[in-house]
Amino acid sequence: MDVKEAIRERRSIGKLKQDPIEQALIEEILEAAVWAPNHAHTEPWRFWVMSGEGRKLLGRGYAEVAIAEAKAGADAALSEEEEDQLRSSNEKKAFRAPLVIAVAVSPSEKPVVPVIEEYAAVHCAVQNMMLTAHALGLGTIWRTGDPTYHPKMQENFGLSGKEEMVGFIYVGYPEVIPTKAARVPFALKTQWVTE
């Protein structure tokens, strides 16, 4: 599959089969990630590849965030039963795909590289991963949202300082065929400047 075809055809796929993914395919995805452009060659990415019971790491993060948020917003403390139910329902989120790759940014201390550029590099790495997965016949969805950036999630993955989670890439064989998509033509969002 050529790169233009991969870019046009890749779609986020939320329904993934639980079939295991070969180690060689996972390694191809990760290899593509590390070739993302990055200012001053800082390579500011970190990855956690979670499969099988290893997905409990992410499940624990989702649960800790949900419990912390519930306790912060509740007028009264959660009962043990309410906390167990909240924990159980949130832990299941990590098992919606056979493989989840957590991706974090670990910004360099180089003063020449603004932190925003480190995030841009990691986002490029995620795009490389998703395009490569698509080319290999796999489906992906990049999951983010408030729990991703919550301090409890950062703590769960051992992030410190300026490090921050940027998302969770759920990977698997597609259970559904993605629908065709349309985009606004680039001409409507482009200004040509020649003088």
Automatic annotation (TrEMBL):
Tagged with keyword RNA-binding: no
InterPro entries attached to this UniProt entry: NAD(P)H_nitroreductase, Nitroreductase, Nitroreductase-like, YdjA-like
Cofactor: FMN
Pfam assignment, any one: Nitroreductase
Main EC class the enzyme belongs to: oxidoreductase
UniProt EC number: 1.-.-.-
Annotated Nitroreductase domain residues: 7-173
Keywords, sorted A to Z: Flavoprotein, FMN, NAD, NADP, Oxidoreductase
Gene3D superfamilies registered for this protein in UniProt: NADH Oxidase
Protein family: Belongs to the nitroreductase family.
PANTHER family with a match to the protein in the record: NAD(P)H NITROREDUCTASE YDJA-RELATED (PTHR43821:SF1)
Protein name listed in UniProt: Putative NAD(P)H nitroreductase
Species, as recorded: Paenibacillus qinlingensis
